[in-house]
């Protein structure tokens, strides 16, 4: 019995040691995976170039949104109730602007409140030099402009980011298709494009590729996540074509070349539409600013003559 008990104890100790060692290895693997995810997220946040995609005012507003988000995350400011923001709209446009995780709903609300108060005070100070009523009017106008400034800044960023992506998408598809015709794989062709071209699309494809190469995500998940971060139907169709070709092993070159032609036509059509809208948009400043000034210049001397003749 004593020998059997000793063997049982030794077996139990060996089993416990093996289980503990495996648990230790598993925990270390999870920690390493978590650190790698954090590095990828830091790289994504460092990749955000807020100095592009809008006017200087838009850049300052987006900087304020990010500062307020960081302050809210660190607990440095009070969490304000969601008075202005619409969660669905904000979530979609923050993602489309490329600031997912960098701008929160609380930071957005805090920035809107601060901008509303600051612009209202500035308008009131400018208007009080004329009259009290004018100060109230300018204060209301300033409050409205301050409250809507973050939404305008995000919208301008979304439009710029989508336009930049659609401008470089045909080029990316052509490069990848040429690489695959030369006998390279899709991953290697994509690496060549990301290394040779300095575009926003190349940098984001680099980050997406790092995710599936390191095992953080599957290739199709990473590509679909990248496509969902843009407000572009053509890019979504291109990504779905790539995912289906990789999954079923079909030829991708012809699909990429056809998608490149379609993307080029779509981008050209969008630019032609913007050019066609320009004369209509110019009617507003022409009717409100230029036309009254011309009428004053033309009719001013006539009216002065009539007034002088009447006296």
What does this structure look like?
The chain has 311 residues and is an all-alpha fold. Helices cover 82% and strands 0% of the residues. It contains ten helices and no strands. The longest helix is centred in the C-terminal third of the chain and has 58 residues, at 253-310. The model is unreliable at 40-47 (pLDDT under 50).
Task: Annotate the secondary structure layout.
Layout (H helix, E strand, L loop, with lengths): L1 H45 L9 H19 L12 H10 L8 H23 L4 H50 L4 H11 L3 H14 L5 H10 L4 H16 L4 H58 L1
Helix pairs in contact: 2-4, 2-5, 4-5, 5-6, 5-10, 6-7, 7-8, 8-9, 9-10
Short description:
The protein has helices at 2-46, 56-74, 87-96, 105-127, 132-181, 186-196, 200-213, 219-228, 233-248, 253-310. With 311 residues, it is mainly α. The longest helix is centred in the C-terminal third of the chain and has 58 residues, at 253-310.
Keywords:
Receptor-associated Protein; mainly alpha; 311 residues; 10 helices
Discrete helix count: 10
Percent of residues in beta strands: under 5%
The overall strand count is 0
What is the CATH class of the domain at 164-269?
Mainly Alpha
Second rung of CATH, namely the architecture of the domain at 164-269: Up-down Bundle
Broad structural category: mainly alpha
Enter the CATH topology name of the domain at 164-269.
Receptor-associated Protein
Compute the CA-based radius of gyration.
Answer: 30 Å
Helix content: over 70%
Multimeric state: single chain
Residue-averaged pLDDT, rounded?
A: 80
N-to-C SSE string, H for helix and E for strand: HHHHHHHHHH
